[in-house]
Amino acid sequence: MFxxxxxxxxxxxxxxxxxxxxxxxTILYVGKAINLHNRVRSYFxxxxxxxxxxxxxxxxxxxxxxxxTDSELEALVLENNLIxxxxxxxxxxxxxxxxxxxxxxxxxxxxxxxxxxxxxxKDKSKYFGPYSSAAAVKDTIxxxxxxxxxRTCNRSLPRDIGLERPCLNYHIKQCLAPCQGYxxxxxxxxxxxxxxxxxxxxxxxxxxxxxxxxxxxxxxLEFEEAARYRDLYTSVKSVSQKxxxxxxTGDDKDVIALYQDESEAVVQVFFVxxxxxxGREHYxxxxxxxxxxxxxxxxFIKQFYAGTPFLPKELMLQYEIEDAELIExxxxxxxxxxxxxxxxxxxxKEKLVELAAQNAKLILSQDREKLKREEGRTIGAVKEIxxxxxxxxxxxxxxxDISNTNGFENVGSMVVYxxxxxxxxxxxxxxxxxxAGPDDYACMREVLTRxxxxxxxxxxxxxxxxxxxxxxxxxxxxxxxxxxxxxxQVNIALSVLEELHIDIPVCGMVKDDNHRTRGLYFNxxxxxxxxxxxxxxxxxxxxxxxxxxxxxxxxxxxxKDQVKSVLDDIPGVGPARRKALMRKFRSLxxxxxxxVDELLMIPEMNQKTAEAIVEFxxxxxxxxxxxx
Length: 628
What we know:
5 domains; GIY-YIG endonuclease; alpha+beta; disordered C terminus; Nucleotidyltransferase, domain 5; extended
């Protein structure tokens, strides 16, 4: 048995990592300490003003464990790994787990290529980035290949020179075809050097060269070639104008600032490479309610830079952080050269950090607006439906639909929406067992009866086992049943609920002659609904989703791999004749009753197969539940 008071006495006065567990052995928190004895004991002292979140965590701790390390730096690395592995509830967590793209120039090859890469390896290639946009990287690579006519193939050169024909890129003047020996190694290398100059931000020479070639082509009346150079010139000009000079030293930097509200924080990072702002990205941090801004910033740096392959020379920070010296040492060891953490106070650098903070605030504000709009589409729409129907609450809605092909393979679908959003884990499919032929009312009766009977039986089982009803998939009944149709479908649902002594409001989604929803049928009255309202749009989405889910299931049953037809057992009936029979007859019962002459009216049928079908059913006694 783990006795916390006794275990606290055994804590060593050494650096390490401590891990807090609850009674179910879930990891609540992971932390590092330069002195485990002092740090862990501090959690269990009375009245030290640590805040309600930490008090809540401490109340849940059933046991703790610790790992001793040789240094605080080792503890930092281990803490990062454990947080990433377990995502503990009370640690401030980086929500995004992105990998950023690089431009890779394979200068180690005799005929180099320019490639897109998500990782930066220690090979002979040159890497540029990271960039925040994969699309921008692909566009840049495409532009470079057009400009410098470099190869994009995987051929091993010079070994494979002349073995195959040149590809299309050579014919459209986007490759110099080194695979054919049409360009010398030295000439090709000059083109590669030009691409490297471009990636280093030296555009002037290239722009001047393109301008000159465009004019020469125009003077020679080669207007198509002149237009090509014009387009390339425009593309390079566009890229060059996007590059914003931020630092005359030309160093690599990341500028990091944040904005925090009650529950979340957004960290904005500006990526500065060779003195140019090449991109930016934002990251969400959770579990920040009682963390100060420097603490959140420190947690971000530890988690983010533990996973990035590229480390800049300098991190420009919004605030001083507690473990700055230790983190500098850790990052420097990872990079293999010195990394500096700086908090600029004046000048252009301080303004750049302030700009990053303003961007973080703007992102959080925009996301709030987005959430507000999303709330209108979901919760607002639900409230609107409840108001139209004069119901106190329609938090959970279930909609049902039937799908078949001329009565073959009748299936039902059940979709669930909670708070205006689809809850796909509660969706259910029904294969109709008691109905043969295209009788949607009978099929709907079976589906609803099975759904609610199953829910009632499941609730009883859970009560006997003393398990919360939330664990049962069918136990949670809806606040509103939505039927894909008017009076007929509604009455079927009401009769099923009455038989089972269940009281749930039922609403029909009435369609016009063009099969579009025009109103709601409720309590024997058709209620109009504004077709431009969020409530109407939600009803339409639910209706479409129920229909899609039913059809998707029906198609899966019809697929060759999942369905074996009764007709497939009859000699001479293959897929084509089975489909022909399904088109001609409304149900399996009608096929069973058909004579040879009637079967021969099908173009795909012959005398022998028609006789085989009649003979087969004469020997068989098939119950109605069998399907084709």
